[in-house]
Design goal:
Oligomer: single chain
Structural class: alpha/beta
Radius of gyration: 27 Å
Shape: elongated
Order of helices and strands: EEHEHEHEHHHEHEEEHHEHEHEHEHEEH
Strand content: 15-25%
CATH topology of the largest domain: Rossmann fold
Number of strands: 15
CATH class of the largest domain: Alpha Beta
Helix content: 40-55%
């Protein structure tokens, strides 16, 4: 069973024209996601070739279907062929020989790395892209090394002369990048702890690409942006970038949410995508630390998608999050403006085992966002009540002011001493006690 379609597009023509291809073992091959990925990378998708059969060791597709692919590429003038399947070096080489001269062949993972490279703006994101590229190349270099050492297939099918130093270079670069990413992560963890000590609750948005995380972040945000390179909050536009494109968010974006009396920071991170290999997920684990080390995770799903697809994504997300995450997870059923109430109720019931108490919202329309804010407040760690007696010194009022900034002050009584009744996170109470102790020590 096979299908051949031609579907012109001019959505993002920056990278030139492409034809997408996909093979599945059985059933019907769906090229929607690989087409979206190609467009996200800037390609104009001219057509698609699909096939249902076992993989061909030489060409991925059967010989006849591969020739059909070559004909479509020639007729459309496509400059690139993008496979949704993973291609081995041998298959890539053979397809290149079959296609018109100069046509580039890439697979799903090469395309994803290209998108990541385009979107990487920070040093951390650029390092993670480089790490993923090296991890993708390493097994190919190891294969060439193994073949060359056995004196088999000299030159590895014309892909280049054997270079024994390449494998060592890749491993050395991977080690160097890992060391630098660890230094960056230590700095970010220190920043997170300083924020907690300052009274901030940390909430992370997780979920698949195009689930609406960036749009939801914009709904939750106040008029303050948190610069990830700074500890303070300059007055900047609170809108996070939100487009109907995959991988719009590659690095982390943090905003301050309006949940009185709490100080809450919400972070949006790179979206999950289906069928990612372990090496690629591992390369971006540093970005996911913003999720793993949050006080609360909002797992955002697109409720307008088919129920089977939502179920599969929830299972995969839970496997990823529960591996290292200890914070509570609240499922957010987003895009309720795209489904009827009956369909929403049916999906809520069908997903009850994975999402026992979800919050349904429309980030685009702003529907039910207030209920989500209330749920966030409920799920975050409880504040504790404290009553501090401060000696009246020159520095007392600065401590009282600090408590006002980091806690919910219920009453302040002035006399020979200053008595402050307030509620706050345990970390803030601990710091307030320390500062009260410092005042008493200075008084002596």
């Amino acid at each position: 069973m096979s299908e051949h379609t031609t579907r012109p597009s001019v959505e993002h023509p920056d990278q030139g024209t492409a034809v997408v291809a996909k093979r599945v073992d059985s059933g019907t091959a769906d090229t929607d996601e690989i087409t979206d990925l190609a467009r996200a990378a800037g390609y104009t998708v001219m057509g698609a070739v699909t096939q249902s059969r076992r993989a061909d060791a030489a060409l991925q597709l059967g010989e006849g279907k591969a020739e059909e692919l070559a004909t479509l590429v020639e007729s459309t003038g496509a400059e690139t062929v993008i496979f949704d399947n993973r291609l081995g070096p041998y298959q890539t080489y053979n397809l290149g020989q079959l296609l018109p001269e100069g046509v580039e062949v890439m697979d799903r993972f090469t395309l994803i790395l290209e998108i990541f490279g385009q979107r990487a703006q920070t040093r951390k994101a650029q390092l993670q892209v480089e790490l993923a590229e090296l991890r993708y190349e390493l097994p190919r270099a190891e294969a060439k090394t193994s073949l060359a050492k056995r004196d088999e297939h000299p030159g590895f099918m014309g892909l280049g002369e054997y270079d024994e130093s390449r494998e060592r270079d890749i491993k050395a670069q991977i080690s160097r990048i890992n060391d630098e990413l660890e230094r960056i992560e230590r700095t970010e963890e220190q920043r997170r702890e300083r924020r907690r000590d300052s009274g901030f609750d940390l909430v992370a948005l997780a979920g698949y690409t195009n689930a609406g995380k960036s749009t939801l972040l914009r709904q939750l945000a106040t008029d303050l942006e948190v610069d990830e390179n700074e500890d303070r909050h300059p007055d900047l536009d609170a809108t996070a970038e939100s487009q109907d494109r995959l991988f719009t968010t590659l690095g982390t974006t943090t905003r301050r949410a309006d949940i009185e009396p709490r100080d809450v920071l919400v972070t949006d991170t790179v979206g999950f995508i289906s069928d990612l290999p372990h090496w690629l997920v591992e390369s971006f684990k540093s970005t996911l630390d913003s999720v793993y080390r949050a006080d609360l995770v909002l797992l955002v799903v697109d409720v307008s998608e088919p129920i089977d697809e939502i179920h599969e994504k929830l299972v995969t997300s839970h496997d990823t999050l529960y591996e290292r995450n200890e914070a509570p997870i609240v499922t957010v059923l987003n895009k309720i403006d795209r489904v009827s109430e009956d369909e929403l109720d049916e999906k809520r019931e069908a997903l009850s085992a994975l999402a026992p108490a979800p919050v349904a919202v429309s980030a685009h329309e702003g529907d039910n966002v207030e209920a989500l804010l209330e749920r966030i407040d409920t799920e975050l760690p409880d504040w504790e009540r404290e009553r501090l007696v401060l000696p009246m010194t020159e520095d007392t009022m600065s401590v009282v002011s600090w408590i006002h900034d980091h806690a919910n002050v219920e009453d302040v009584t002035y006399g020979d001493d200053v008595v402050v009744d307030f509620k706050a996170r345990p970390a803030v109470i601990s710091r307030a006690r320390d500062r009260a102790s410092e005042l008493r020590t200075a008084e002596v």
